[in-house]
Specification:
The chain is an alpha/beta fold and 468 residues long. 26% of the residues lie in helices and 23% in strands. The strands form five sheets. A six-stranded mixed sheet has the order 6-3-2-10-20-19, with helices on both faces. Strands 11, 12, 14, 15, 17 and 18 form a six-stranded mixed sheet that branches. It has a four-stranded mixed sheet with strand order 1-9-8-7.
Length: 468
């Protein structure tokens, strides 16, 4: 067996692992990162991300953000509300309170951001990025700090000594059994959602065929390794971030193929019926759960329909082509909706339910919850309920796309991994999508990357403090 020895061994080369590796190196530790993928595919799901949610009101920067007054209190409230208050309050509090410093820390190290929203509908503070570029930037930064990255290194088991301390990782490195020993191990290997078997096990029949937006390498073996040495599982293993994506998206590693702006129109299934309140909330607070509801419709697909009033506010980022027509009837037939007659009736009923001009209708505003509703139908539409009555009409076939699962190992706010008795496992820490307890039922857009960076940094700090 090959052997390598470091102070800290980090499993994963996405933002959680890179943040952990960078911080540990800053604190004068020898560090290695184990990356399951080949070098050209490094970065896990981070490689396919585009935004980072931050409380802009609490950031010390001269930049002009998309939403200037978004505070840590707003951030905390958003997470708690979209998870139906099931998120661990202590984890949420640590995440939001540490996010300004983490953003400034990454910025000071040279990470690049875009500060203005690419299209309408963003109601929370964010910055934008190109995931692959971020991974490349951070890899260069950590390597300059002396961190060694081992590619094609798949963690298969953890070593736990007689005293209970986790003291190393056994991996397959370039096909050979290799032991990486260390005084601490940080688990930052992402989730399990790229495994067809696990999607079927946790989400149900048919989910093995769901398109995977991110890395093909996030298949959960590192989570098994942690639980094999006593780590407690936590979170909603049967739920996940499943975004609304173009039905023509690749089966895996499609990245950003979302169709945003659905909230300004209607979503119909093959039966010609609506099944969600498209205007329930801002896009960032519905797109991750609507994707699952779409996937559970006939043929795992649905259709976004808008008219000329709002089509410019739709961001179509997928490879498929939009369909246009001069009438709703013609559009639904061109979309191959199986029951076009019911689809036309559904749109007619919606148009009749919309608040009419002169009867309290507010000015349409795609950037806020504008209060224009259609209450007399089932389901109602709570905002942006404008009649679809101005041709041409445009339709987008969509499905649900797997982003990441909500289950993982249990951690403390100091990123210590807990065992099944709720005691910290000495020498074992975790961050990012490898952890559970933060997301339930739904997901506030842009939070995953922030969560991974914040807790990756915390994990390194806690590990170093425990070693002193």
């Amino acid at each position: 067996m090959n052997r390598h020895s470091f102070d800290i061994v980090v499993i994963g080369c996405g933002i959680a692992g890179l943040a952990a590796g960078l911080r540990a190196a800053e604190l004068d530790q020898s560090v290695c990162l184990l990356e399951k993928s080949p070098k050209e595919h490094r970065g896990g799901h981070t490689r396919f991300t585009e935004s980072f949610r931050i409380p802009t009101a609490d950031i010390d920067s001269d930049a002009t953000f998309n939403v200037e007054d978004y505070s840590t209190a707003d951030f905390y409230s958003d997470i708690m509300q979209v998870t139906n208050y099931r998120a661990d309050e202590n984890l949420v509090d640590r995440l939001v309170s540490e996010s300004p410093d983490t953003f400034e820390w990454l910025t000071d190290h040279g990470v690049s951001w875009e500060y203005q929203a690419p299209h309408p509908g963003y109601t929370a503070g964010r910055v934008w990025l190109h995931g692959e570029d971020m991974v490349d930037e951070l890899v260069e930064i950590v390597e300059d700090r002396g961190v060694e990255i081992f590619y094609e290194a798949e963690a298969r088991s953890l070593r736990r000594d007689d005293d209970g301390d986790v003291s190393g990782v056994e991996a397959r490195h370039e096909g050979r059994r290799t032991l990486f020993t260390g005084d601490a191990v940080i688990l930052a290997a992402g989730d399990y959602g790229s495994s067809k078997e696990r999607r079927t096990r946790y989400y149900g029949p048919g989910y093995g065929n769901m398109k995977v937006r991110g890395s093909r390498y996030n298949t959960g073996e590192a989570l098994d390794a942690a639980m094999d040495v006593g780590a407690k599982s936590e979170g909603e293993w049967g739920d996940a971030h499943m975004a609304i994506i173009d039905v023509q998206s690749p089966d895996v590693e499609g990245g950003i193929t979302r169709i945003d702006g659905y909230q300004y129109g209607l979503i119909l299934n093959h039966d010609g019926e609506r099944f969600v309140d498209e205007g329930e909330d801002a896009r960032a607070h519905t797109y991750a759960k609507f994707g699952r509801e779409i996937f559970e419709q006939p043929y795992h697909e649905a259709f976004i329909i808008v008219d000329s009033k709002t089509v410019d506010d739709v961001a179509h980022m997928g490879p498929g082509r939009a369909v246009t027509a001069d009438s709703i009837e013609s559009l639904v037939r061109r979309l191959d909706i199986e029951d076009p007659e019911t689809a036309v009736e559904t749109v007619d009923r919606f148009n009749e339910a919309c608040t009419v001009e002169g009867d309290g209708i507010e000015a349409y505003d795609p950037n806020v919850l504008d209060g224009n509703d259609a209450p007399g139908i089932d389901p109602p539409k709570s905002n942006w309920a404008l009649p679809l009555d101005e041709p041409p009409f445009t339709g987008y076939p969509v499905t649900g796309g797997m982003t990441f699962g909500f289950g993982g190992v249990a951690i403390t706010p100091d990123a210590e991994v807990l065992d099944t008795r709720d005691d910290p496992i000495p020498g074992l820490y975790a961050a990012g999508n490898a952890t559970g307890g933060l997301f339930y039922n739904n997901y506030p857009g842009g939070t995953g990357l922030t969560n991974a960076a914040v807790y990756g940094r915390i994990a390194a700090e806690t590990a170093v403090e425990d070693l002193e």
